[in-house]
Amino acid sequence: MRKANVKRKPPVRRKAKKKASFFSGKVSRFAIVSFFILLLVGVGYHYRNGLAYYFSFKSDKVLRQEAEDKRISDVRNYQVLDNHLGKAVGIDVSEYQGRIKWADVDTIESKYAVRFVFIRATVGKDRLDRKFEKNWLGAKENKLIRGAYHYYRPNENSIEQADLFIKTVSLRKGDLPPVLDIEKLPKNQSVERLKIGLKRWLKRVEEHYKVKPIIYTGESYYDDFLKEEFSDYLFWIANYNFYRESMEEDWLFWQFTEKASVPGIKGNVDVNIYNGDLQQLQFITIE
Predict the structure, then answer these.
(1) Is residue 258 part of a domain?
(2) What are 124-148's pLDDT values in tens digits?
(3) Greatest distance between any 2 Cα atoms in the chain
(4) How many domains does the chain contain in total?
(5) Which domain holds residue 33?
(6) Among 53, 67, 116, 133, which one is least packed by beta carbons within 10 Å?
(7) Domain of 139: which CATH number?
(8) What DSSP letter does each residue of 178-222 carry, written as one string?
(9) What is the pLDDT of residues 24-78, one digit of tens each?
(10) Which are the catalytic amino acids?
């Protein structure tokens, strides 16, 4: 009997695992650190002007450009104001103007008398302007016609926003009607739903104060979304474009610049023109 030939399988040779090289690990770490350093440098370069402003060492080029922008803005401010001589002129402020010396607030560009001021009171459903109370009292003490406005957040409940404004602002005889400031489009709802919310806010506020609110917005926003459906309201329109030198007849107020100088206020301030004289402005105040 023949012996069976048994084939033996060749032994499996396992490759020995290479030990991680000290240098390869060091190179990887170096690459990661270098990436983050380059990222920080890139971000710093992109925001160089803002960082320079923060640390108060703006370059001469930036300072010269700012001075030129202010000069051009001043030229337009004088031109617009001269085109509207006889009309009441005022400003609007918020916490962003910081501490205001109201006793010094008297003229715009040292020439045009300040007759009225709109003051931001509330934002959305839960935020109070930090300077509202002081500004509200200061404007009254300085014998300025004053008005309060609410900055509307489209994605928050309109009734809660209205109630916050009502709780915060007590209007008195001689004050301007309440103002709804709408500038943004909603992210989580349609424009039609936004309009429903605006109408709810306006109705709630009108029922409380017994006076129709004014709506503040930009000219494009007004033309595209509000002009037709909210035609029974009076509008305060913002347009800073250099080409526009006069207001439309159907605008109640025109905010024509955000770069004016007013004594008692540090930095720039918004300026508004009322479509009428001082006596006509007093006529629309609360009785």
Answers:
(1) yes
(2) 999 999 999 999 999 999 999 999 9
(3) 132
(4) 2
(5) 24-51
(6) 67
(7) 3.20.20.80
(8) PEEE-----SSS-HHHHHHHHHHHHHHHHHHHSSPPEEEEEHHHI
(9) 666 677 778 778 788 777 665 665 655 555 555 555 665 565 555 555 567 888 8
(10) 92, 183
